[in-house]
Amino acid sequence: MLLGYYMHDFSxxxxxxxxxxxxxxxxxxxxxxxxxTYRVMRFLAxxxxxxxxxxxxxxxxxMVAVFGLVLGGRLGYLLLYNFDEFIxxxxxxxxxxxxxxxxxxxxxxxxxxxxxxxxxxxxxxAGIGDSIVCGAPLGIFLGRIANFINGxxxxxxxxxxWAMKFPTELQHEDFVKQGGDPALAYEVHQRxxxxxxxxxxxxxxxxxxxxxxxxxxxxxxxxxxxxxxxxGLLLSAVLIFIRLRFPRLRQGIIAGxxxxxxxxxxxxxxxxxxxxxxxxxxxxxxxxxxxxxFMFIVGGVFIAYGIIWGKSPPGPxxxxxxxxxxx
Length: 327
Hints:
mainly alpha, 327 residues, 2 domains, 12 helices
């Protein structure tokens, strides 16, 4: 069987104790993302390339995770993608177990929190930004991998040989637009089939098995993997390389590069990603592309600040001796 006909069958759960007690890959991705960001920031702090001292990085990451990324990501999703439901039931912002996070919201929330932290501790906001953006894309990488495991945010229909088939397509309006049976899509919805294993199990028990399911699904771009590499792993590698290669680069420039390079990657890769069901286009762009255009402005402001007013990182001499980590 060609890779283009591979059918996604990953479970969204790392482990499932009961129907109500389970560990999701998405939650694990967040935890690992925070840890990797912490390791990168601590590494840079020990080299004098951050205004945050090594011993303060752990507390900073904990606070930015809760008040910046999680809260910002949740609010961003509700305001940008689910505003009608949010305005009628604002308490759903606390229902994190129901899913729904937006990368743009997480980035905005983290940026604002870093601004507050810099003001409170009287250090450079741009300097904090230069450090956190080097590690944060690793969290984006893991988040996109979790999207792939969940079978969500898949790509557009394609004939490329590495295309994949996602059973969760049956939940998406594009299945019917591509000629799929609307009665089947309605049946899947009514039965509450949320993930690939459940949909496959349903076909094996009540219909023609995996063979029938494969014939009705459309090969699609695994756009989650493209975004994991472009918005995550590659972006982090580039920024860490620049930070280490040019240690005296003025504060703010690397943060600005993050916003611009992320926007370029997001806009480009959205062309192969299937827009969410019911998602309206804005000026011919998907919502993800449209909101990313504003990141060029933010990035430009950070770079201009760095060139005009930015200072160089404190350097190794300004860093206190690293505090040994507790075992």
